[in-house]
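STRUCTURE:
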């Protein structure tokens, strides 16, 4: 509390002007009587906070599983998945048992036929090595049929409604995004449900909206380099970008590079990088060329509000750029010996004010 000299202030409770004190916290004025009551009220609020603190400490001592909603969801998912697996196993088991019974009938019939031939051949002493080999082979086939019926196959149904449960932590804050220039830890290819975002930066660029939006903030002569947070080592992954702002001439690079190579200036020229730039330039593992009919790439047709799809195909070892408005696709091969896994997508902004947004997974 601090004393107030002015006579214009009044107590907010009784409107008296004598002995007025102003609370530094709420900035309200009180007379001598009501300032004591105000302090008592604040003391009561502090007591309530202390009680909440004590309750929280007690809850921390209890098993987390009692109240954590995510753990309850995981338990329910486990129960549901087990029930689905058990139902599928019962169905498959019943089908297999039916096939086994049918197989046993065929085997019994064949055995009876072989028995007659063996008895007849023994009685008439009419058999040779060829007959013995043929009967041995028949018996081996029948024995194999008992353990594994020829008509039975186990085929996994990849469309079955059983899915993995994955826990991810919240992403870095905006300040952490902007200040991070360290490569993320090496990890396996991302799950299909993980959302790509901008993460590593070098040069005049700001990351906004949790890493979904990248904006060039410097002079046009300075390039800004941005890499994603996910690493790609297998499968096929498509990233969608919207060009929010784009000055002429178009000077944005979309591509990928090996995450083993540090992010540095002229990263698009690195032997580990592949992608498409402005002025119809194409970069293939350190080799620059001007796009021709071979590449079917025309950067002059790309403009603001266009949506581009960048596909990192680790299986086919290639990079694809699809232009939604023009419905065109450009393809570049990636040399694995020059761009070893894991890959990261690479984007370069060169015009001041240019900005690109990562769109959510379809």
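SEQUENCE:
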């Amino acid at each position: 509390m601090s004393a107030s000299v002015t006579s214009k202030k009044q107590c907010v409770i009784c409107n008296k002007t004598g002995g007025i004190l102003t609370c530094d916290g709420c900035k309200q004025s009180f007379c001598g009587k009501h300032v004591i009551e105000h302090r008592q009220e604040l003391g009561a609020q502090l007591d309530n906070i202390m009680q909440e603190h004590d309750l929280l400490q007690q809850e921390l001592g209890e098993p987390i599983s009692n109240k954590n909603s995510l753990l309850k969801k995981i338990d329910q998912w486990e129960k549901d998945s087990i029930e689905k697996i058990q139902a599928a196993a019962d169905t498959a088991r019943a089908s297999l048992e039916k096939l086994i019974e049918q197989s046993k009938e065929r085997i019994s019939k064949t055995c009876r036929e072989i028995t007659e031939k063996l008895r007849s051949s023994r009685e008439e002493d009419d058999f040779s090595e060829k007959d013995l080999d043929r009967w041995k082979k028949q018996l081996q086939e029948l024995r194999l049929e008992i353990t594994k019926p020829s008509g039975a196959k186990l085929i996994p149904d990849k469309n079955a409604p059983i899915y993995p449960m994955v826990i991810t932590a919240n992403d870095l804050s905006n300040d952490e995004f902007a200040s991070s220039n360290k490569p993320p830890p090496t990890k396996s290819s991302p799950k299909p449900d993980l959302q790509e975002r901008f993460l590593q930066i070098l040069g005049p660029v700001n990351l906004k909206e949790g890493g979904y939006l990248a904006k060039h903030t410097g002079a046009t002569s300075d390039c800004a380099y941005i890499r994603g947070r996910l690493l790609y080592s297998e499968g096929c992954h498509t990233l969608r970008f919207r060009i929010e702002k784009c000055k002429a001439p178009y000077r944005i690079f979309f591509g990928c590079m090996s995450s083993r190579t540090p992010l540095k200036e002229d990263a698009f020229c690195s032997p580990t990088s592949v992608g498409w730039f402005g002025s119809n330039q194409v970069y293939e593992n350190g080799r620059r060329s001007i796009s021709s009919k071979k590449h079917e790439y025309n950067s002059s047709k790309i403009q603001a509000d266009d949506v581009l799809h960048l596909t990192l195909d680790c299986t086919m070892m290639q990079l694809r750029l699809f232009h939604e408005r023009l419905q065109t696709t450009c393809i570049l091969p990636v040399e694995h010996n020059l761009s070893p896994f894991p890959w990261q997508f690479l984007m370069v902004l060169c015009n001041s004010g240019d900005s690109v947004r990562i769109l959510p997974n379809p």
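REMARK: The helical segments are 32-60, 69-124, 129-147, 174-179.
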